[in-house]
Amino acid sequence: MVDVKTLSDYMEPKTLEEAEQIQKELAKRLALCPLDFSQISLIAGVDVSYIDDQALGIVVLINKELEIVEVVSERMKVTFPYIPGFLAFREAPVIIKCFEKLKNRPDVALFDGQGIAHPRKLGIASHVGILLDLPTIGIAKSVLYGKCQKPSTVGQATLLKGQDEEVLGYCYLSKKNTKPIIISPGYKTDLDSSLHIVKSLLNGFKLPEPVRLAHLYSQKFKGS
DNA sequence: GCGACAG
DNA sequence: ATCTTGTCGC
Ligand SMILES: [Mg+2]
What we know:
single chain, about 220 residues, eight-stranded mixed beta sheet, 8 strands, about 30% helix, binds magnesium ion, DNA-binding, DNA damage, nuclease, Endonuclease V
């Protein structure tokens, strides 16, 4: 079960300074390690859409055959504005509600956003991964932090580097004639594991299935 | 001070 | 993210 009471302390900062301090504290608990693929059976995709001041969170669970196993959604009033570098404070609350509602336990979760490719290594994937103690990976549609060369051929992954040439993730061209995606480990996963699992989850589209489906449902669920 | 800037 | 139809390209 999820300890909501404790989690709220990490999701309701009243100032940006406080939010930044929370990120620095959580970052101390950041841990990266390889994924044990033989133990992976359920993969989650996470995304959030908005209807006025309401956030609609979606978590989609699929198996290794890319078949949908479970889908949950939750709504919640938005309380934090969108500020680059602080997305988790806006989307994590409703996302965590979704995970509490989930019947199955995913072995790893892919988020629509950054993992450690963040100024303080605490993108939304890392943030939520630490709070729920769940292996996570960030799948972003653009760069927030770091520099990288543009991959030229499909299947090519270039290194996304931060301060002092530190590798934070990959810029990966998953499909022709599309913008490359930014892949970065979030929590309890690493660079190689993240790239490897994302490749196994591509199904003809730019985004890996879990994230693509989560985004699809987050839009589709507007109206019921 | 100026520019960058996930969703 | 959201406001929004058709249209060009693979
Ligand atoms: Mg999103």
